[in-house]
Amino acid sequence: MINRHIERIIQKSLHDRKVILLLGPRQTGKSTLLRERFTGEDVLWLDGDDYDVRAILTQNTSAYLKNLLKGKRRLIIDEAQNIQGIGLTLKQIHDHVKGVEVIVTDPGSSEMTSHLDVGRIPGNA
Ligand SMILES: Nc1ncnc2c1ncn2[C@@H]1O[C@H](COP(=O)(O)OP(=O)(O)OP(=O)(O)O)[C@@H](O)[C@H]1O
Ligand SMILES: [Mg+2]
Q1: What is the best residue among 27, 30, 46, 77 to mutate for testing ligand 1's pocket, by most ligand atoms within 8 Å of CB?
Q2: How many angstroms does the Cα of residue 75 sit away from the middle of ligand 1?
Q3: CATH code at position 28
Q4: Is residue 14 part of a domain?
Q5: How close is the Cα of 37 to the center of ligand 2, in Å?
Q6: What are phi and psi of 88, to 5 degrees?
Q7: DSSP β-bridge partners for residue 43
Q8: Is the CB of 110 under 6 A from ligand 1?
Q9: Domains contained in the chain, number
Q10: Which domain range does residue 71 map to?
Q11: With bands split at pLDDT 50, 70 and 90, how would you rate the model's confidence at 124?
Q12: Tens-digit pLDDT profile for residues 37-80
């Protein structure tokens, strides 16, 4: 397995109470990194490719999100680009659900992220 420098950056950032966006083109290892290093007990993994997950995450009242994340220490949303209104949902989680770390993957070309000028997993790393 190729070691990922970004793993340490993610580890450090988790304590900052930020929502971490892991951006990178297709097949560059985003899901693998999260599955191997950032899952475990009390981690809720939601895959935006799944129709049910898309339905779950388009609901974004703070009460609903608090209940969804009750007892969880971390939320991982893979393939977030497929979830309508995910930006607002993430803002609600950040603002109203305390103590939950959030990591989100996205290819970086979605409505939420295409305008961002940030570090990404390089396509050949
Ligand atoms: N650190 C690594 N070292 C070697 N191979 C890896 C590594 N990470 C991922 N791979 C391999 O690269 C391929 C793509 O990985 P992965 O599915 O995690 O990418 P992805 O960025 O999530 O892709 P997508 O955007 O299509 O979901 C897989 O075959 C996986 O086994
Ligand atoms: Mg993936």
Answers
A1: 27
A2: 20
A3: 3.40.50.300
A4: no
A5: 14
A6: -70, -40
A7: 74
A8: no
A9: 1
A10: 22-106
A11: very low
A12: 999 999 999 999 999 999 999 999 999 999 999 999 999 999 99
